[in-house]
Automatic annotation (TrEMBL):
InterPro entries: CLU-central, CLU_dom, CLU_N, CLU_prot, GSKIP_dom_sf, TPR-like_helical_dom_sf. Residues 52-68, 665-678, 1225-1236 have a biased composition (Basic and acidic residues). Residues 346-588 form the Clu domain. It comes from the Eukaryota. mRNA-binding protein involved in proper cytoplasmic distribution of mitochondria. Specifically binds mRNAs of nuclear-encoded mitochondrial proteins in the cytoplasm and regulates transport or translation of these transcripts close to mitochondria, playing a role in mitochondrial biogenesis. This is Clustered mitochondria protein homolog. The keyword Cytoplasm applies.
Length: 1251
């Protein structure tokens, strides 16, 4: 096997339930043709031993010959379709009837093992082999390579003898099965478990029958199978017992309160005669020898037998997405009060593999650096190779992130010894599990000129952004370190992989490129310049010269802090990438530098607390894109002028350029596309001309050359012949003297970034940084919950003078502690927090808001701030908890009680790490996804759907079954299914999207709320009205928690709820929601906006249903007036509103006549029956589609042609930006298919806030 074997080995002891789900979530199992490199991605992500890497390689080899080689133009649209002709085999396992299983030739034998370990009737077996005609099958063999295996073959499950390792795996697996419905691991943030509550609100799987067990699961106490299952104190077996086959001893207390000791032997499990105090390993009578621990427990405990069987029934009925592990740990900021139960696996993990070594891996610890770099060196010539490479990178990265997080917590908790223990605490560094840990403090005045400790705290996240960027460019031969930044208990810890040999030599000897002292001594290296030059164009970094302390010029192609080190492995590493992006001059006042007028008006430049402020990559990209459009426009205008009148030349261009430059430097004009439409032919000419000049072709005439030169000069390009904007990252860097400032200044210093510092984010940020520095850092562990609860009382409680409760022993031993100060981070003695008052805290928060955001909080306390900025205290509590990692008890908190504090020590349950890391990307899958989106925008829904399905397969391949990008894929697929009329498929895909969003983002993440709203729409379309309402109420509850009533999205949500209630004829309730939506829309969009007009119409419809025609008329008139003023009298919407007004007037008149008749003639009145029509489901669904941004527009053939031509024309502008990235094959496909539209009517998903 390749080096991947070492990098993909994962904890063999955690081959519990997660390992076996790999099979059950497989997409397209035994079905039609599908992309097949295949979903062992789940296994790779969650780890189930070295077979993953082998399988991936075999898949890649097997698929290689069927894959179209990429074209020379870098076309990414390579599709491998493998006809997966599945076949059926019979499985014969001991104690149950033989059953059939559908398999695929590409699968490995290991995958059948996994299925059997997940099935309800065979899940208790882990130590077995599969045999065909008496021959044992190799776990890592693909089924198609096995001789004699065919349709109808009988595979026998044969029990194998245990080893110590197999016995431990078995016990761990049984424990996983017993805990499979217990949410405690999800609340505790363990083993990549996370919460999901969708099934509570849908009462089971939306696709099939309603299943009562889901409600039972969530509202009844969990089934208890055993009181205790733990390792016995008699472990390990003595030598004489080992020779009798004893492997380990277990201690069990059954629900019936029977205490038993169990021996795990090579032959299986049996009862022995030991007690808590007497060791007697001989078999009891009867011993109940069983190969499986479950079979043994079934015989000694009737309750276990009954409850374990019921538990497994429920487990297999859950949706697979509820039980698969996530790639990265998600933490919950609230948790219920839970009893702490005995758990042998948890106890074992705490004292073995979790501290310093991982016993299941050969060689004890993993060489993280070697694994991370080896996976990047894997070949990437074709799609199978790239998929295998990306999958390996993602797998190793998620493992590294988990290990780094554990290590950082161990460092802060004082469980790791420093490599420099004699130095001051802040200066200590640590190595744990081959990972290097350093703290976010300014050691040795390294950041003295940049802001000291404040800069040192910011530097790790800037460095992480640099690592992320260089990894994305992915230049062969240039290596970055694995980097994770962890905030835990008020400390910032940077975890990095270790460069081979770095610890054996001084840093001065190691660094051969860059500077170790911020520019005083600078060195360069030709190999580094060559490698970094490949990154300079995508990263917009200009090659430049700086002066060292001897006034010598040194050439660099990165910031001066970026260091190049060649490791003992011969690889070229770059590190300290904290200034990869250009400095933000809005926060770096420099003498003699003039800021643009727009910046001055907003009070820039402002002095910031540190000098590491840099521009975000998104801003730099947007700025360059804006300049490119400007460049194209200027050149096109001049070329057209030349054509029309050859006498007019550069004068007009200069004027145009200066006017454009002054207008909106750094801001992208909104109407750019509109202005450019007429000049598309000119743009094509410019593009062609620029390409010809770039290829150094002498055929370009001098006048055309002049056009390009002038356009380049006007937009600040560093080249005279082509558009090329770059930045010098060392400009205005303290301590760095750069040569040749002038060139980039024209476009660099005018980058203009507006700030929107809302009161909410100010309070959230100010208070969380306060909690980290004042309440957590340096607090003795025994006083941590008291410190945090005191802080929260000072900040959020209305109780005027909360008093801190210091731990009793701390006051007594204060003097002793002083002698031991700085022994380690976890036990520093700091009781300053106890004297904090609400007034002092609020003063600190105001000062933080002023210093960081330059924003003045004009209020005296949190109560006033909540009123002034319309905030909820519960929302602030959530924000602080998420930012600082605090977990609080799930209960009702009364913030307004002035007689007692809101929080007690018991309300603070835990502190979790807040982890920042790089997210490796699945590039091919992403290109498929983008192409699919482009197709959809052009109206080719079916083709778009196919491409997005392919993207989904590839994402599954790289990430496994759980990932944010898979969630986006499923959401878009569901929307396309819905638009194309396949409501049930839309429901199925959206259900997966909601489950995944809950699991990987969190149960109340804003994205999850939106997913709930979409799912409710599809439920309504599938006539599941009560479920739709349940989901909408859930979404509203979450919205209230996260944002409060006063939020523009609440209007959309209330409109949805109001419409559904209207559909089920709950008119009064419907009106409450719709009128609330109307009020919010009016506040945020203005009373004359189209959204408000639609709201008026929806309210009018409900009043009509109630026969209150006067109110209906009043609202519809408001709507009509808005439509008339905004769209004109002849617009379709205005006409519709006018028609509806006429209808309402007729109804009102008819009603009045009837009432007059009754008044006049009493009971003898001749009453004409009035039409009180309940709204049809179709009309309600139509309105739901409109408010959710889905409009079905019937188009004629000619309209369709025009629309597609228009879309194509607009896309040409965007494509020219991509410089060859966009796939040319796609455009050809569009032209070919314009003659035959995909659908008779195009459904256009409008871009609204909900879309």
């Amino acid at each position: 096997p390749s080096p991947l074997c070492t990098c993909l080995v994962q904890d063999a002891n955690t081959t519990g339930e997660r390992e076996h789900l790999n099979y059950s979530v497989r997409k397209g199992r035994g079905g039609p043709a599908h992309l097949c490199l295949h979903p062992s991605g789940v296994a790779l992500m969650n780890g189930s031993g070295p077979h993953d890497s082998l399988k991936g390689e075999k898949d890649a080899k097997q698929n290689g010959h069927e894959e179209a080689e990429p074209g020379e133009d870098g076309n990414d649209q390579e599709v491998i379709v493998i006809q997966d002709t599945g076949f059926t085999v019979k499985i014969c396992a001991p104690g149950i009837e033989p059953f059939s299983l559908q398999v695929s030739p590409q699968e490995m034998v290991q995958e059948i093992h996994q299925v059997l370990m997940d099935r309800e009737d065979t899940c208790h077996r882990t130590c077995f082999s599969l045999q065909l005609d008496g021959n044992v099958l190799d776990n890592f063999a693909e089924l198609k390579t096995i001789e004699g295996l065919q349709e109808g073959s009988l595979l026998k499950v044969v029990e194998e003898p245990y080893t110590v390792r197999e016995a431990r795996i078995h016990v761990r697996h049984i424990r996983d099965l017993l805990k499979s419905l217990d949410p405690s691991d999800a609340f505790n943030g363990v083993d990549c478990n996370s919460l999901s509550f969708l099934s509570v609100f849908t009462e089971g799987d939306l696709g099939g029958m309603r299943q009562k067990h889901f409600l039972e699961r969530n509202h009844c106490p969990p089934l208890q199978c055993l009181k205790v299952l733990t390792m016995s104190g008699w472990n390990p077996p003595p030598g004489n017992r080992k020779m009798h086959g004893d492997l380990m001893y277990l201690y069990v207390i059954t629900v019936e309160d029977r205490h038993v000791s169990i021996t795990a032997s090579t032959r299986g499990f049996y009862l022995n005669q030991s007690t808590a105090y007497n060791f007697n390993p001989k078999p009891a009578n009867p011993s109940f020898l069983s190969h499986s621990l479950v079979e043994l427990l079934n015989q000694i405990s009737p309750t276990f037998k009954k409850n374990f069987s019921a538990l497994q029934k429920k487990r297999v009925q859950r949706h697979p997405f509820e039980r698969i592990a996530t790639p990265f740990q998600v933490y919950s900021w609230t948790a219920p009060q839970a009893e702490h139960a005995m758990d042998c696996v948890r106890a074992e993990d705490a004292y073995t593999s979790r501290l310093g070594y991982e016993e299941h891996i050969p060689g004890q610890t993993r060489d993280w650096n070697e694994e991370l770099q080896t996976t990047r060196e894997l070949p990437r010539k074709n799609l199978p190779e790239r998929l295998l490479r990306e999958r390996a990178i993602f797998k190793v990265h998620s493992d590294f992130t988990a290990a780094a997080t554990r290590g950082a917590m161990a460092v802060i908790d004082g469980n790791v010894m420093a490599i420099n223990p004699s130095e001051e605490t802040k200066m200590q560094m640590f190595i744990w599990n081959n990972i290097f840990f350093s703290l976010g403090f300014d050691v040795r005045d390294h950041y003295k000129d940049f802001g000291g400790d404040v800069a040192a705290y910011v530097a790790p996240t800037n460095d992480l952004n640099g690592v992320r960027t260089y990894n994305a460019v992915d230049v062969e031969g240039l290596y970055t370190l694995g980097t994770v930044v962890v905030d835990y208990r008020g400390y910032r810890v940077t975890a990095q992989s270790i460069i081979p040999g770095i610890l054996e030599r001084e840093q001065e000897q190691s660094v051969i490129y860059g500077s170790i002292d911020f520019g005083k001594t600078v060195v360069s290296h030709p190999k580094y310049l060559e490698l970094l030059e490949k990154t300079s164009r995508p990263l917009k970094i200009q090659k430049h010269k700086v002066l060292n302390d001897k006034n010598e010029e040194v050439e660099l192609c990165s910031s001066v802090e970026c260091k190049g080190i060649i490791g003992n492995d011969g690889r070229h590493y770059i590190l300290d990438l904290l200034r990869t992006f250009p400095p933000d001059l809005n926060f770096l006042p420099v003498e003699g530098e003039e800021m643009p007028e727009e910046c001055k008006k907003m009070g820039f430049p402002k002095q910031h607390r540190h000098k590491l402020c840099c521009l975000r990559q998104e801003l730099v990209d947007a700025f360059v894109e804006h300049r490119y459009l400007l460049f194209m426009k200027l050149a096109a205008l001049q070329l057209m002028q030349q054509k029309a009148n050859k006498q007019e030349s550069s004068a007009a261009l200069e004027n145009g350029a200066s006017a454009e430059n002054g207008a909106a430097d750094g801001e992208r004009p909104e109407s750019e596309d509109g202005k450019l439409e007429d000049g598309v032919t000119g743009l094509d000419q410019v593009k062609e001309l620029a390409e010809t000049m770039a290829s150094d072709d002498g055929a370009v005439d001098p006048k055309s050359r002049e056009v390009i030169r002038n356009a380049c000069k006007a937009v600040g390009s560093i080249s005279d012949t082509s558009f090329d904007i770059r930045f010098n990252p060392d400009i205005f860097s303290p301590g760095t003297c750069a040569q040749g400032w002038e060139q980039p200044c024209s476009c660099r210093q005018k980058l203009f970034c507006s700030q929107d510092a809302a009161g909410f984010s100010l309070l959230g940020r100010g208070s969380s940084s306060g909690l980290q520095s004042w309440s957590c850092q340096g607090v003795e562990l025994s006083g941590l919950s008291a410190a945090i609860s005191h802080f929260l009382n000072c900040f959020l409680s209305s109780f005027p003078n909360p008093i801190a409760h210091l731990p009793a022993d701390e006051l007594v031993s204060k003097k002793k502690n002083k002698k031991r100060k700085n022994r380690n981070l976890g036990n520093a003695d700091n009781t300053a927090w106890a004297s904090m008052t609400p007034q002092e805290l609020w003063k600190n928060i105001c000062s933080e808001a002023k210093n960081y955001f330059d924003f003045s909080l004009e209020c005296e306390n949190a109560d006033q701030a909540a009123e002034m900025y319309n905030l909820q205290k519960i929302t602030l509590l959530r924000e602080i908890s998420l930012k600082t990692g605090v977990q609080i008890l799930l209960k009702e908190y009364n913030f307004d009680n002035r007689h007692k504090p809101t929080f007690t020590e018991e309300d603070i349950l835990n502190i979790f790490p807040v982890v920042k890391h790089v997210n490796p990307k699945a590039s091919d899958a992403f290109h498929f996804f983008q192409s699919g989106q482009a197709k959809v925008q052009q109206g080719f829904l079916k083709e778009g759907c196919e491409l997005i399905n392919e993207a989904l397969n590839l994402f599954n391949n790289v990430y496994g079954a759980m990932h944010v990008e898979i969630c986006a894929c499923l959401r878009l697929l569901a929307r396309l299914n819905y638009i194309m009329g396949d409501y049930s498929e839309a429901l199925s895909n959206q259900q997966k999207a909601v489950l995944m969003s809950e699991r990987v983002l969190g149960i109340e993440h804003p994205n999850t709320i939106q997913e709930y709203m979409h799912l409710a729409l599809y439920c309504f379309a599938n006539s599941q009205l009560s479920t739709a309402l349940n989901l909408l109420y859930r979404a509203r509850y979450l919205m209230l928690l996260v944002f409060g009533e006063d939020h523009p999205e609440m209007a959309l949500l209330d409109n949805n709820i109001g419409l559904v209630l209207h559909g089920v004829m709950e008119y009064d309730l419907s009106l409450r929601f719709l009128e609330n939506a109307l009020a919010i829309s009016s506040k945020y969009h203005g009373s004359k906006s189209l959204k408000v007009a639609l709201s008026h119409h929806l309210v009018a419809r409900v009043y009509e249903s109630k026969a209150e025609f006067r109110s209906a008329l009043q609202h519809e008139k408001e709507g009509y007036t808005i439509y008339k003023n905004q769209l004109g009298e002849h617009h379709e919407k205005t006409k519709e509103s006018s028609e509806y007004l006429k209808y309402l007037t007729q109804q009102a008149v008819a009603l009045q006549r009837t009432m007059n008749e009754i008044y006049k003639n009493g009971s003898n009145a001749n009453i004409m029956p009035l039409k009180f029509t309940a709204p049809s489901m179709a009309s309600v669904l139509e309105q739901l589609n409109i408010i959710n941004g889905i409009l079905f527009i019937p188009l004629s053939q000619k309209d369709l042609e025009n629309l597609k031509a228009e879309v194509q024309r607009r896309q040409q502008l965007q494509e020219s930006m991509k410089s060859g990235e966009q796939l040319e094959a796609e455009d050809k496909a569009v032209e070919e298919k314009e003659a035959e539209p995909s659908m008779p009517s195009a459904a256009i998903p409008l871009t609204q806030s909900s879309a």
